[in-house]
Amino acid sequence: MFRALKLSGVTRAPALLLPIVALSSPALAADAPPAPPAIDTGDTSWMLVSTALVLMMTIPGLALFYAGMVRRKNVLATLMQSFAICCIVTVVWMVAGYSLAFGTGTPYIGDLSRVLLNGIGAHIAKGADIGFTLGAGTPNAVTMTIPESVWMMFQMTFAIITPALIAGAFAERMKFSALCVFTILWSLLVYSPIAHWVWSPLGWVAGLGAIDFAGGTVVHINAGVAGLVTALVLGKRKGYGQDDLSPFNLTYAVIGASLLWVGWFGFNAGSAVGANGRAGMAMTTTQIATAAAGLGWMLAEWVRRGKPTVLGIISGAVGGLVAITPAAGFVLPGSALIIGVVAGVVCFWAATSLKHMLGYDDSLDAFGVHGIGGIIGALLTGVFAYGPLSATDANPGGISGSFAQFVSQAEAVGITIAWCAAASFILLKIVDLTIGLRVTADQEEEGLDMTLHGERIN
Amino acid sequence: MFRALKLSGVTRAPALLLPIVALSSPALAADAPPAPPAIDTGDTSWMLVSTALVLMMTIPGLALFYAGMVRRKNVLATLMQSFAICCIVTVVWMVAGYSLAFGTGTPYIGDLSRVLLNGIGAHIAKGADIGFTLGAGTPNAVTMTIPESVWMMFQMTFAIITPALIAGAFAERMKFSALCVFTILWSLLVYSPIAHWVWSPLGWVAGLGAIDFAGGTVVHINAGVAGLVTALVLGKRKGYGQDDLSPFNLTYAVIGASLLWVGWFGFNAGSAVGANGRAGMAMTTTQIATAAAGLGWMLAEWVRRGKPTVLGIISGAVGGLVAITPAAGFVLPGSALIIGVVAGVVCFWAATSLKHMLGYDDSLDAFGVHGIGGIIGALLTGVFAYGPLSATDANPGGISGSFAQFVSQAEAVGITIAWCAAASFILLKIVDLTIGLRVTADQEEEGLDMTLHGERIN
Amino acid sequence: MFRALKLSGVTRAPALLLPIVALSSPALAADAPPAPPAIDTGDTSWMLVSTALVLMMTIPGLALFYAGMVRRKNVLATLMQSFAICCIVTVVWMVAGYSLAFGTGTPYIGDLSRVLLNGIGAHIAKGADIGFTLGAGTPNAVTMTIPESVWMMFQMTFAIITPALIAGAFAERMKFSALCVFTILWSLLVYSPIAHWVWSPLGWVAGLGAIDFAGGTVVHINAGVAGLVTALVLGKRKGYGQDDLSPFNLTYAVIGASLLWVGWFGFNAGSAVGANGRAGMAMTTTQIATAAAGLGWMLAEWVRRGKPTVLGIISGAVGGLVAITPAAGFVLPGSALIIGVVAGVVCFWAATSLKHMLGYDDSLDAFGVHGIGGIIGALLTGVFAYGPLSATDANPGGISGSFAQFVSQAEAVGITIAWCAAASFILLKIVDLTIGLRVTADQEEEGLDMTLHGERIN
Amino acid sequence: MKLIVAIIKPFKLDDVREALSALGVTGITVTDVKGFGRQKGQTEIYRGAEYQEHFVPKSKLEIAVPSDLADPVMEAIRLAANTGKIGDGKIFVLDVEQAMRIRTGETGDSAL
Amino acid sequence: MKLIVAIIKPFKLDDVREALSALGVTGITVTDVKGFGRQKGQTEIYRGAEYQEHFVPKSKLEIAVPSDLADPVMEAIRLAANTGKIGDGKIFVLDVEQAMRIRTGETGDSAL
Amino acid sequence: MKLIVAIIKPFKLDDVREALSALGVTGITVTDVKGFGRQKGQTEIYRGAEYQEHFVPKSKLEIAVPSDLADPVMEAIRLAANTGKIGDGKIFVLDVEQAMRIRTGETGDSAL
Ligand SMILES: Nc1ncnc2c1ncn2[C@@H]1O[C@H](COP(=O)(O)OP(=O)(O)O)[C@@H](O)[C@H]1O
Ligand SMILES: Nc1ncnc2c1ncn2[C@@H]1O[C@H](COP(=O)(O)OP(=O)(O)O)[C@@H](O)[C@H]1O
Ligand SMILES: Nc1ncnc2c1ncn2[C@@H]1O[C@H](COP(=O)(O)OP(=O)(O)O)[C@@H](O)[C@H]1O
Hints:
Chain A is an all-alpha fold and 458 residues long. Chain A has 16 helices and four strands. In chain D, 21% of the residues lie in helices and 39% in strands.
């Protein structure tokens, strides 16, 4: 009975957690409550590193990627957005976000057991360490070989980067105070719930059978859609389509994209939650899809515009990183290549054609790259998933691509879009009505660096 | 007897080493000399990474953090300072510094057994590896699960960053030749002795009962005080308080601060000397204190000056990193939050008010951020230390905050300040009298890039 | 018999693989085919990290190092070169390069068993992982404690950086389309074969007895020589020796060199293929040689030109990194110091005197630093190798420096130079005759950023 | 011939360029400058050190025109660059004695 | 009206601005320029390639003033910018035929 | 005295400087400027947004010379800066009423 439950639990649990379940299943299969599991230093080492890598994705990675695409007068303000979001979400996550996302709770939301990270240090037992059990006490519990503090930190870096990604959509025109308030609200009311639905072993979206290796829905579709809504609510930048809004210094964007790439190894290979073959495979597919997408965008641009651009190749690479995220641990290298090429070409089209057709000003293409790339990846994961990569003793077939899986993926995508769009819209309106979302026309003209922060690049 | 000695040894040893002691205590407790311990690949992996992360803190982290705050004409010279210090200290450490700091020796100084790293490779025994024993042969010996070469390298990166931090105080006006000579002398005569006092299991300051998880005294107070002395001896920059000394490009400072943050995970979580729960907790408190301090400074500035600045939030974050350093593995997340907020606000006050009140020109606030932040952290560690986090079988209570502990902390702070200030002053005077400390007025005006190095940013 | 064969296999195998052989030799020595070895999570963790570090060396490390040395009008194009090469080689390696280099095959070339990475995921066996055996089925087979996907990824990052290094020689004047085609051809026809000769356990150059810890020949001499040939075939930049070709912003170069240094820990210490004492020693020698070489170049310049420059110290450091690469795991710290000083001074001479004497325009000294540094390192490895560091049960003497070893090293150097020079020359001529190698004079004058990519730094 | 020197707000540059093109002006030389005038700069604060920035970024245009075009050009600039707010800038007219096109050696009005 | 064009050492800019403000000058336009003159540039060396930098950084000030202020302004600049060392710079005086304030359309001296 | 204002292609700067030095000119002030003229700028594309860059980078030289040197200087610039291609630039000559060397207070031709 337990086995059967377990089995279905495995099928439905976020794929992210599969290998751990597998590794620990002999212990779990026993009737008696298992002894507290020990940590594995190799796995813990890799997860500590992955945490550092994912933090590096936001600061300085994303900060530079975005700052490199704005005009000189907004470079520092754009850096400030990523850095401040990093600080704010850290505190929000510590106060309540982690508990809401990963506390056991119900299928719809976690609980308050870890508010202020209460008890997070309990895994240290006189110099030895206990591995973390996610959803402890439920039949779907997942036991890990790393301590809870490391799991919490790893997840924190995901919670940080998601709102920071949104900032690409409202660059060069949002009030800093509005950004602060919106970030707090959005993190608690949009990010934490969706993370719980998808990644908690009892989350209701996980229960629908969708798989998401490292956060295609929770992070990228979520951020992309919130970005789109923000761009629509805020309206276009002054001079959009007329003035020269060209980037000040793409060097920063190249550094940023490169650090995103390197850091993404922590994001994707780290989502194996251990230093094992699955991490190696996730790193492999990540590398291949990213390269393929960079080349895809570059070639599409070369054909369509006559020149390959550096902004193009790095944008494509980021699109590829996004698209492979939900698939990384489930697909073979050949599939990664296809996912990458598709992501590169389609994101190119989204950022250069779709955006102009629809007429919104998503300044740095948070939606065009993260939203679209995330959707491509989530759907293609349902097509290309290769069973043996996620096969375990308990689930010897693993998860394979199929029409049914594709439908599950589409459901998860739809749910994420719907909740995120609606909640983001309401939050933005609240902030707008209270403290106002957008800077004044004069501030926008003079630049946010001087007017909001009193600083500038000399 | 051995146990008793061991126990008191534990209480007084640098907390940094506690978990290792714990892990290896069964072996140590035996009467016969223990068999040479094997290394743990997971722990070794994490320490290799931590070494890389701490090196990244200096180059390019600190180099950029500082270079982003100077005027255009001094950017390259400021980068040069960090880079050259990195090279110089590497050689100094290899020749004698490591041996003086971590050779067994006496409570006051190490020995010469590791001069030129003599014997450092002996841990490789036909393809297998022996873990390092610090203070081998003494009753307080601490056995590690990593090879000595890794321990030596990890410590080298600390020895590198400390003098590099001082450079913030004398930016834009010190002769490069003076910097080279001062670095060599200071590293041997100030850094190595203090490191031995605090971190050697027989060091006399460790024996006073003070705890310092990752170097609040040895690194930050030490560098901050040396910086203050240097700023006083050198005098103010030309035009200080009158001319526009505003930073050329704060983008560099933001990259630098971000890499400091990421790299600090190696500094603090690496000071657990293993990939374990204590490393996870140290990473957690580091993240929280840093974010809180960034927000603390930013909000203080917003209230006091009307605008939040990017230089402010990154300075606060660095202040938080400094303050949590001695505390990282000893305190709970809630305490880290408090330490962070206090550090952010007090460092803001130190860098913006205290400095002007006292009238010295600590160009980039080496003292205001590292000195003050380090003192806050060292003292609050004595308040907030939470016993169970450092509890072991041998010392089941762990180290808890108490008035007595606070006093011990204050003693260690006082000793560090006294020795560092006196020795730094004497060394500076010697250098001044021999080769001169300060560039000429013309060189200062034209900028150090061109006049000292014959290069410039185009 | 097997043992004897094994032994000679060890003596001749690329030193890179020695420790692994040692660790696994008991299993291998058995008569029956050994059970598939398990992976070690600590080793796997370190190799995952090393892979990320080596990728970071190319993007953004090398990209910035090079971009910081060109004129403003070519900064983005130079970044583009590294980034595009990273994407292109990823795909080439996945399609055939890895299989040609590390498939068992013959002493001269690998096989096609891993084309499109066919079978690369087979190491994942229901949640557990099998360690990789290089040269499986041959008597020289080398068994590792990491899964094949990690080995393949680690090696991919080497395959990426090598052609990216060449770009330093042709900066500011090569057509982007030519670069793309040349990279594909060179990677398949020069890099993969040489990697096989030197690093496959059956490679014929390995069989000559030369040792190369982390790629002095395969990576650095190879790239340096290809760079020299390219510089000669392309001719000098317009205005070379007359116009002001001085760097736009050396800040980028300092960031780049720093990240190269940090990332090189993955390159060299990662070449121990495990988190062990040998990795620690390789990290130690890397650090010391790099610092010594930085100081060596700086002091030579100070004496000869009157000023120490930041471009000098970073160039020296890179020269030291190159020179220690083949030696890293074989030499003691004192030898590393000597290798570093020699590399710093000789590379200074090569880049500042030799180049001008011979009159080629190796824009960013790909040959002067990587070619010369690599040769110094390869030869001195034969002088300074210290036996006990590579001693194993099977080969208790390890590999020691000797005249015979020096000759073996020289042979390997000569073979690499000969093949690389000839093949590179032919490939360049083919590309020149078909699509053309060099931009037009007008394009060169206006800058590659605008003319090739339609972008620029504002 | 006259040399019209106009100091304007940077973001008005495109408007002015278009207005002048419409008038038939075929050449403009633009410089990024810093202006000190009635419009005051801002206070910047770096770690508590206040820097009164006295200068604000401006664009300087130099346009050589045949003498009869001087007045219409001035008027066109005024109309295009005007925001009605302080700091809009100035126009100065200087006399040009001679002009030459480097490419052809032409001189006088035809060199413009 | 006159246009005073002064090329000075960059670090003297604040002194000159203050001296001119004291004289009642209400507007200055400043450009970062590179000067070639008696003061020689430096030799830069990048990996052994020597670049003789012939130019040194200077600040160029342009100040339009009523004709009668031209001499006092020149004098004030001279006093404030003088260091006695080579490279102190030059002052040139040009005639301005017309001036206009963009914001108001005022012309002549009152436009300054 | 005359002020020769020349707008040239940036990469011709060194040639022109040498040509002028040969003529005995002892001072030049150079500004990086953006030019709009017959030579059109390029189209830049950033993520599908096309920006027509109307301006091309140019160098502006200002050279004050005794009146009799004006013509030879113009000629020398023309010869040195000419590539025969569009965008080579212009030379304008303005009258200078007065000149002063800040270091010495010398005025007139001897100030140059
Ligand atoms: N007398 C002057 N000489 C030279 N430039 C001037 C003069 N007066 C103003 N300017 C330039 O014009 C700009 C705008 O002048 P300002 O006095 O701020 O506004 P407004 O012209 O609207 O009164 C200044 O920033 C400065 O660059
Ligand atoms: N004839 C000139 N025309 C234009 N600018 C000049 C002229 N002579 C000098 N300058 C400018 O004045 C600056 C200072 O001149 P320089 O000859 O170096 O010193 P000094 O004026 O003290 O003799 C030069 O760098 C240049 O910018
Ligand atoms: N009437 C003008 N006034 C001011 N500057 C001009 C004028 N005409 C041209 N220029 C400057 O000269 C440069 C070259 O002019 P352009 O018309 O492109 O080429 P050409 O002089 O060869 O016909 C322009 O980029 C601009 O900077």
